[in-house]
Design goal:
heterotrimer; A mainly alpha; B mainly alpha; C mainly alpha; A: mainly alpha; 6 helices; C: mainly alpha
Chain lengths: 167, 644, 108
Amino acid sequence: MDITQILFWILSALALFAAIMVLVSKNPVHSVLWLIVVFFAISGHYILLNAQFLAIVNLIVYAGAIMVLFLFVIMLMNLNAEAEPQKNNWMKIIGVVTGGLLLWVLVSAVRSAADMSSRTATLKTGDIGLIQNLGKVLFNDYAVPFEISSVLFLSAMVGAVVIGKKD
Amino acid sequence: MNELVYLVPLFPLLGFLINGLCRKQLSKSLTGIIGSGSILVSFVISTILFWQVKSNGALPVDPLFTFIDAGSFKIDFAFQVDQLSCLFLLIITGVGFLIHVYSTSYMHDEEAPHFARYFSYLNLFVFSMLLLVLGANFVIMFIGWEGVGLCSYLLIGFWFKNDNYNYAAKKAFVMNRIGDLGFLLAIFWIIEKFHSADYAIVFANPQGTLSPADITGITLLLFVGATGKSAQIPLYTWLPDAMAGPTPVSALIHAATMVTAGIYMIARSNILYTLAPSVQAVVAVIGLATAVFAATIALKQNDIKKVLAYSTVSQLGYMFLGLGVGAYTGAVFHVMTHAFFKACLFLGAGSVIHAMGGEQDMRNMGGLKKYMPVTQITFLLSCFAIAGVPPFSGFFSKDAILSAAMQSNMLYYVIGVLGALLTAFYMFRLYGMTFLGSFRGTHDQEHHLHESPKAITIPLVVLAALATVGGLLGIPEVFVKDSNWLEKFLAPVFAGSTALTQAKPAEGNSSMELVYMFVVAAIIVAVIAFAWSKYKKYEKTTEPETGLGKVLANKWYVDEIYDAIVVRPLNALAGFLKNVVEKSGIDGFVNGVGRFVQYSSRQLRLLQSGLAGNYILYMVLSIVVLFVIFWNQTQIVQFLENIF
Amino acid sequence: MPIQYYLTLSAILFCIGVAGALTRRNAIIIFMCIELMLNAVNLMLVAFSKMSPAVEVAGTNGGTDAQLFVFFIMVVAAAEVSVGLAIIVMMYRNVHSIDVNFLNRLKN
């Protein structure tokens, strides 16, 4: 096993552990912090796959902006462990079981897919993750969606302001 | 000219429609004219048809339209004009016309809408009766059969505000219905065997298609129908109760026409009966039993109309006796003479009731001879006719039946003569109590006594004349050779039967027959004289009847027996069905379905908790299930196919 | 790495996100689980982009579509988070609680 494989397994284990801790934590602030760990792990996966641009953007946007926003809101509402509402145990079990069922179905579907069994995702090599290649494709082929996404942001901003108005 | 026959029932039908629909607008005299006039026109056309049939024999008539057309099975709405139906036509329209005229005066106390209702029902009745006798197949006869049953119900319950009359009307209808069931079963049997109900097809060669068991069954069932309509044992109790209706109704329906429908039906099917001697014996025995049984009851009745009602039942028994011993002509002859004298008797009784201001109890009458001469004379003549005194019509017709009975079985003859003696006795008891002696009613009634108006007395006179001379139509062979005109006229209708019975040589000891006839006549005259003298000096007593008299006065308790055996259990069953089966069973089930739906919907509503989290849960679960199904499609389909 | 490992990892992350969305009552935590689901999908897409045979040929831009898709998913996620948090703040202002079980106006 070379280093890439070891890294893959470590990062996977980290991501999974952190995801579970997100669910399990009583304090919402802890949940946020664990989610940030998840994001780091996933960015690590991206770097392994040589998708450098996405790795950085993931960190900046998600871990940097979105999670900070979450933290702001949590602080705003002064949430801590006592105030956390608890679902009854019955619902928790059902929720976990449902998730497990879904997992089972998805994994079985994946394993029985015939033409997937031999494919591999190439690590560490490949140019497509590099920013100049991505940029070229983005601004040549996908220029329109790019512009539209700016409009989307505008509408989201307006929407957020309107919703949050106190009146 | 043959299509003329369709006009015969048309006019009464029009009369019914006009009088019925416009009853609020028409005046009483106009109603009477329309009602009676329509019957008069039918009578005229009937006489024309009669002359044609007399000279040319049976007339062929085209069907009017196809009534039922189902595959290979066809019933035409067709009429049959032969000697038998012509004779009945004349009786129905002739006597009917006289009774309509009588009714214009008898019912004049009614208000105009009810007066018109009465005449419309009467016209509808005549229409149905004409359909019955004119029909060329059993189905048309059945239509008329049901129609007269309906009109009987409507007319018995004419004064519908009285509950007792309604009960009597219901009783008549229900008992008729029981008989009708037998008739219907017979028709179904006939249709099953012959694939048609036409007389021409059924009577052409019955032995060819039917087995002896078939013939016995069919004739027996037809006879059950006849017992219902013509009031024989055991379905006769409706007729005395039917006297609740107006007296002209009793005269027309329950004396002259409707009750003779059974006789007509059996006379029409004579070939079937001749082929079933066992059923013929049944018919004869029941007829004879009814004749004597009803006569005994009439001995002790005090209501003038009830005596006449039981007398009708008794005379119908004689007609069935005649049919049972094969004297078809004799039975039809008795129908004719009975129509004359019984209608006259009923109309005379109506005249008496009218004069007495509604009183019907004979114990309160008496001595009416000097107040109502015309009524009294006509009544007396009809009494002689019904008792069977020569040379009145009743003598010849009753004798035709009794001599045929003697040839069949001496016992029939003896009992028949006994019945005739009883008849003479109670009829003259009635005459004596009503017209002879001194008046036993109240002072007010005595002041009110008067002879009835012309519209009432003229029909009485006509009918009494017919009752007197009507016998000349059927003078038996023993008196004058070749003189039985009626027998010759009706011969083609009964040809099939006479051919079959020709095997038995006629026991024609004509001198012995004459002796018997005159001996019986003499005894009857003696009985009449006895009754006359006894009831001339009738004194009203208030002491109740005892012993046999009590049983007879209570009609042998037959009504009470029927009530206990039939009516009460049926009511109990109906009550049980209503309370248990209907309420708990059917209602419970239906309501249970509703309650179940409500319950399940209440439970299902709990799924809608309003919490989006729950909805997401359902969504995810459904997605999982869908995945599984989608993935294992073929296996699931195979599994389901194995189950179903 | 065989693509199946990435598929399985992504599926597990997704299902953890689903379980979390179903289990928790705090609206913000539910939101975070949604983000987790989105990230699982992103990982999947990137893995597929490297699986594409066009990658073998160097110099060409065969599998960039998937990565650009991920880019746009992030765009949408960001917009969605802003609006969603605004709604949650509104809800807190009205009900003074962020328990989703209080939002049962659709009941019955």
